[in-house]
Design a protein that fits this description.
Layout: H1 11-15, H2 27-33, H3 37-51, H4 56-69, H5 74-86, H6 90-101, H7 108-120, H8 124-137, H9 142-155, H10 158-171, H11 175-191, H12 195-215, H13 222-234, H14 238-246, H15 259-271, H16 274-287, H17 294-307, H18 328-343, H19 352-366, H20 378-389, H21 395-400, H22 411-419, H23 438-453, H24 462-484, H25 498-515, H26 518-534, H27 539-551, H28 556-565, H29 571-574, H30 577-583, H31 589-620, H32 626-637, H33 640-657, H34 664-670, H35 728-754, H36 767-772, H37 775-801, H38 816-822, H39 824-844, H40 850-872, E1 879-882, E2 885-888, H41 890-931, H42 940-972, H43 985-1019
Antiparallel strand pairs: 1-2
Length: 1025
């Protein structure tokens, strides 16, 4: 069978797989083909040593030398343009490229070089025009037509793709080209805004095109059948699709196991043909009783048949697929027979039938089926499952989802019965008995995890939990010998006993949450650091360390932890929030930039990469994947995390550079930031966060009953546990909170951008002139944005009032509640409101605006008061030692960052005020000179502004002195002198190492915040009027 694949014959397709913009693409291969051998020897160093190795300036020089001798050498011009593009001279590069493009070149080398350049410029639409011209001049070129099709694919022009595919097929009648055109019709249907148009025009036309090939018996490849099935499925023609799958064409579906059967099952379900669904599931389960995907279909069909009171026909025929099980007794018997077969096997039993029995039990209980008719007692069935599979790591995940079948009274009994099946050695001096091999260890570990999942760990009192931690740590250290036994073990391999360490860390977190004793979190950090030293690739250790360090306000160790996770592709979207949430708020701005870049680099490459995936799908005939790639691209473009990181990164750049390195206006211009455009897709935002990334054994509901553990635990103190799994309501509230904070930040960013137009610098007394210059429009836009910000702050206050608390292993709270409670948001809004008052003052002039000047001066005074309150709430000891215990107050650091952000915005607003007040003051002084007015008193607003700048100077001085004091105090702490109770020397060393990291991180944060505040102090000198 000939595969549906287009084999490229040019370097362009070979290079199209690179995710980077052709950094290692040997442009010498292109240039060599376009010049004579004598010339090629002269320019070889240019191609090989300069452009390909990143020496773009020398490449440009060599291209210029070549062009002096050969003025019309297109390739040399384009390669020079590539060099210019890579040195940041985009305008020159574009001009040179357009010069060649207007000549409509048809040589393969110039076209490929231009394609590379336009893709580096992110202008794929220009490639289409390039090949459109080439196809007109060389209409019978298969190669250029195929390049034109792929160029259309990169810009998503499905209609032109359809036309290009048919044009290709007419030139070279190959099936792949024909079905490219068909798939482009399907994509028109998928992307059509009018569903009726898709169902009445695009899909029927695609169906007729495929049917023509079917009638002519020209269907050759599996991909063509898959496409035919996709079209029928989207048209809702399930019967016709079923005929295709069960007919001769279905025999071509061979690339995936049971592909035909799965498609038939899906169609039977859609058609609600439950007898066939049931019978087919039976046959497939008889072949492979461990294939879980067919058990749900088997059970679902049973209950649908029961609801319909279905029974076989009088002649005894069930359905075309065979016999049907339409009663619970028949299904129970079928499952029990599969279990019996497994029990009688000499080899290892399969888990599927045993899990199927538990699943059936769960579903029968949900339907209120009588207990006496159930296939056994849940406790006994789970004990039997543990007996067979308890030594497998998957046992805990298998049983965990069925623990709800047990009554609360059975929890301890269940654990005790499992414990009896765990072979342990003799008890040691510490009273603990340990497993002697890895299988016993796995069984014991499973029992411990099930105990926590049932809430028995949470029910212990403080002493009981400390005893539990000691036991878990002992088992962890004992289990390390199994992992270290083989000297050939790789560093990336995990230890068998890692889960003991992780569970002990969770119990430490329970104690920290319940008692507030910070010693617990320090010992938890030490334990996790020790675990990471033995299992350097354990992602759960890294994730939990990352969360705890952030909760303690320590960001410095987090960047390396996240980097070592080696997040791939979409993980930057699903778990990136763990890093970026704390990036800026903890005062390490350089690390924050790096953190944002982790995510933005992925999102920015998404559009280009997805286009390449689509092209590869066309080339290899993976048509069913193309809609999935499009959906993935849309999902990422609409990602909440993408919008957050993009907004925070631009704000961060302003806080770091605006009026420090560049002026605010230059910074806004460099970012191409527009106050008029809201680039956040609010209506289609997608929450792609993975909120279950942490391993979590917490029960869903609280255990209110007093419990006793036979093997592991002591009686407990009955206070309600605080740790539970994330609820659906908390997920919803978290998303609502994230959107509210994003809206505040986005509006703040746009308002800052609206301060920058240079038209405000001159006096605009004439309203018509104001409108001509756009000042009136900017004023109305600024007012509109302020109104939106105030409305958003009001709505955000209502969200904050709910005081939603999330589990520590759930989503982190945003900065919203802290920003509102400290007054940062309202102070920023008041500062941004100043521009409106100053525009009114500019129109009225200084002579007749006394009331307005008083109002503006009151705002000046209010801003100083609010900033002082924010600074006061930032004062206190970040890190202190009390009674030989180390205490942290990370909220003070976050408040200090709020002060920095707020004072920066106040200074930008003050700078805007200065631009308007300077010409007004100068104009007033000129008038007084003409009138020979002896009154030298300054206008009220000018005095108020001078007072504001002086107060801001004092506030910044206070803040810098406070930071200097904190740095001295934290540096003076002697952490080595701390005595850690209940820790061995090795454990204490890891704990103190964690403390050192927090201390170092605090100092780094204070240094960066202090440096930025000092730079802001310098900018006040520019506010003199």
């Amino acid at each position: 069978m000939r595969p549906l694949r287009f084999q490229p014959r040019t370097l362009l397709h070979a290079a199209s797989n690179d995710s980077a913009p052709y950094p290692h693409f040997k442009v010498w291969e292109i240039l060599r083909c376009g010049v004579a051998p004598s010339q090629s020897r002269k320019v070889s160093p240019f191609a090989n040593d300069y452009l390909d190795n990143g020496n773009n300036k020398m490449a440009i020089q060599q291209a210029d030398k070549l062009l002096k001798k050969h003025k019309d050498l297109h390739c040399a011009k384009v390669l020079k343009a590539i060099g210019l593009q890579r040195t940041g001279k985009q305008d020159e590069a574009f001009s040179l490229a357009q010069e060649v493009t207007t000549l409509e070149p048809t040589d393969d080398n110039s076209l490929q070089a231009l394609t590379i350049l336009y893709r580096e410029m992110h202008r794929p639409e220009l490639v289409t025009k390039l090949y459109e011209a080439a196809v007109k001049k060389v209409p019978l070129s298969e190669e250029y037509h195929s390049h034109l099709f792929m160029a259309y694919a990169r810009v998503g022009d499905y209609k032109k793709m359809q036309q290009a595919g048919m044009a290709l097929y007419k030139i070279v009648p190959k099936n792949p080209y024909y079905f490219w055109s068909v798939m482009s019709l399907v994509m028109q249907a998928i992307s059509a805004k009018d569903e009726k148009l898709a169902q009445t025009m695009f899909l029927p036309l695609a169906e007729r095109m495929v049917e023509k090939m079917v009638k002519e018996e020209k269907i050759e490849a599996e991909a063509e059948v898959q496409l035919y099935f996709m079209i029928l499925e989207r048209l809702g023609k399930c019967e016709e699709a079923l005929d295709v799958i069960r007919g001769p064409l279905g025999e071509k579906l061979t690339s995936e196991l049971q592909s035909r059967e799965r498609k038939c099952m899906m169609l039977y379900t859609r058609l609600e043909r439950w007898p066939e669904c049931n019978a087919l599931a039976q046959k497939l389960l008889l072949k492979n009783p461990d294939d879980w995907q067919f058990y749900p279909s088997y059970f679902d069909s049973l209950f649908h048949l029961m609801d319909q009171s279905w029974s076989p026909s009088e002649d005894g025929e069930h359905c075309s697929e065979g016999s049907v099980h339409h009663t619970v007794a028949e299904v129970v018997r079928f499952v029990e027979e599969r279990i019996k077969v497994e029990d009688e096997k000499d080899s290892r039993s399969l888990r599927g039938p045993y899990l199927a029995r538990l699943e059936l039990m769960h579903r029968l209980r949900e339907r209120g089926y009588p207990e006496e008719n159930l296939p056994g007692e849940p406790l006994d069935l789970m004990v039997q499952f543990f007996r067979k599979f308890g030594d497998k790591p998957c046992c805990i995940t298998d049983l965990k989802i069925y623990l709800h079948l047990l009554t609360p009274d059975q929890h301890v009994q269940f654990i005790n019965r499992l414990s009896e099946m765990v072979p342990l050695g003799e008890q040691g001096e510490d009273g603990f008995a340990f497993p002697e091999d890895t299988k016993s260890l796995q069984r014991h570990l499973c029992v411990c995890q099930l105990s926590r999942a049932l809430g028995l760990h949470h029910s212990l009192d403080v002493s009981g939990k400390l005893r539990l931690i000691a036991e878990l740590k002992a088992h962890y250290h004992h289990g390390l010998k199994f992992g270290m036994a083989g000297s050939s073990a790789l560093k990336t391999e995990l230890q068998f006993s890692d889960m003991y360490c992780l569970m002990a860390a969770h119990v430490y977190i329970d104690l920290w949450t319940e008692t507030g004793d910070e010693d617990m979190v320090w010992q938890c950090l030490g334990l996790l650091e020790e675990g990471l030293s033995h299992s350097s690739s354990n992602a759960q250790f890294k994730l939990l360390l990352l969360r705890l360090y952030c909760r303690l306000g320590s960001f410095e160790p987090v960047v390396d932890l996240y980097s070592s996770l080696d997040a791939k592709h979409i993980q930057h979207d699903t778990i990136g929030f763990l890093l970026t949430r704390y990036a800026e708020s903890l005062g390490q701005f350089s690390a924050a930039s790096q953190s944002c870049n982790f995510s933005l680099r992925f999102f920015h490459s998404n559009q280009k990469d997805t286009s390449e995936y689509i092209i590869q799908a066309y080339k290899y005939g993976a048509f069913e994947k193309i809609p999935e790639f499009i959906a993935l691209r849309n999902r990422l473009n609409q990602s909440l995390h993408f919008a957050q990181v993009r907004t925070e990164r631009m704000l961060l750049d302003l806080f770091l550079e605006a009026d420090v390195v560049l002026s605010l206006e230059e910074s806004v211009k460099a970012m191409s930031l527009s106050s008029e455009e809201d680039d956040v897709p609010w209506d289609t935002l997608r929450d792609n966060r993975d909120l279950t990334v942490f391993t979590n054994w917490d029960p869903k509901q609280r255990s209110k009953k007093r419990t006793h553990m036979f093997v592991f635990f002591f009686p407990f103190c009955p206070f309600p546990p605080l740790y539970r799994q994330l609820t659906d309501e908390q997920r919803t509230r978290s998303l609502e909170e994230e959107k509210a904070w994003l809206r505040i930040r986005s509006l703040t960013l746009r308002l800052l951008a609206s301060l920058t137009p240079s038209g405000h610098a001159a006096s605009q007394q004439n309203s018509e002139m104001s409108n001509e210059n756009g000042v009136g429009d900017r004023s109305s836009l600024h007012r509109s944005l302020l109104s939106q910000l105030n409305q958003t702050l009001h709505a955000a206050a209502q969200i904050a009032e709910k005081q939603i608390q999330y589990p520590l292993l759930g989503p982190p709270s945003t900065r919203l509640a802290s920003a509102l409670s400290i007054g940062s948001c309202h102070c920023q809004a008041a500062a941004l409101q100043l521009s409106v008052h100053l525009q009114e003052l500019e129109s009225a002039g200084l002579d007749e605006s006394s009331e307005l000047q008083i109002q503006i001066c009151n705002v000046f005074k209010s801003l100083v008061v609010q900033l002082q309150e924010i600074l006061n709430k930032s004062k206190g000891d970040l890190l202190e030692m009390k009674e030989s215990k180390l205490k942290t107050q990370p909220s003070l650091l976050e408040n200090l960052v709020f002060f920095l952000e707020t004072v920066s915005i106040v200074l930008w607003s003050a700078s805007y005020c200065a631009k308007i007040l300077r010409p007004l003051k100068t104009s007033l002084q000129k008038k007084k000179k003409k009138k020979k007015d002896a009154n030298t008193a300054m206008p009220l607003v000018v005095c108020g502004f001078q007072e504001l700048t002086g107060n801001l100077q004092d506030l910044l001085t206070q803040a810098v002195e406070h930071i200097r004091g904190q740095e001295s105090g934290i540096t003076a702490l002697k952490l080595a002198s701390l005595t850690l109770e209940g820790c061995s020397r090795e454990e204490a060393s890891f704990t103190k190492a964690a403390m050192d990291k927090v201390q170092s991180s605090y100092l780094r944060s204070l240094q960066e915040v202090g440096d930025l505040l000092k730079k802001r102090t310098e900018t006040i000198k520019n506010l003199k009027i």
